[in-house]
Write a structure and sequence with these properties.
The chain has 127 residues and is mostly beta strands. The protein contains one helix and nine strands; from the N terminus they run H-E-E-E-E-E-E-E-E-E.
């Protein structure tokens, strides 16, 4: 029975990481991980976007977004995001250095949240 309960808890924790999360009751991100799955080097740059929603009571900004690797390009909404409204973070990953698995981290800094939020781009590049 304990094993069953532990398995369920781990599954729910994994789903929240992939399917979105709230941060400090002010910011909601549709997901924190984008898994490209298996891709090929010849596919070229991979792109995805994350939706950021202001669930707080004050307007907010995405102050900056920092990547851990120069292989990742980032664009984000740089205008005010009012309560109830959304913005985007667009990321591209240049997969020319494969084949290998990758997990790139993007740190997002918000005007109304004290800690950076980590987003991940992951997948496996083959020939």
């Amino acid at each position: 029975m304990r094993r069953y309960v532990l398995t369920l808890l781990l599954c729910f924790a994994g789903l929240s990481a992939v399917y979105g999360a709230d941060f400090g009751k002010v910011v909601r991100i549709d997901r924190t991980v984008h898994d490209f799955g298996k891709v090929r080097m010849k596919d070229g740059a991979l792109e995805c976007s994350f939706t950021v929603t202001n669930i707080g009571e004050e307007p907010m900004y995405i102050l900056t977004v920092v990547s851990t690797c120069s292989c990742t390009g980032i664009e984000w909404t740089q205008t005010e995001i009012k309560p109830g409204e959304s913005g985007t973070i667009k990321a591209s990953y240049n997969n020319q250095d494969g084949p290998y698995p990758f997990d790139k981290t993007i740190k997002v800094y918000f005007s109304n949240y004290n800690k950076p939020v980590a987003l991940h781009l992951k997948g496996v590049v083959g020939k």
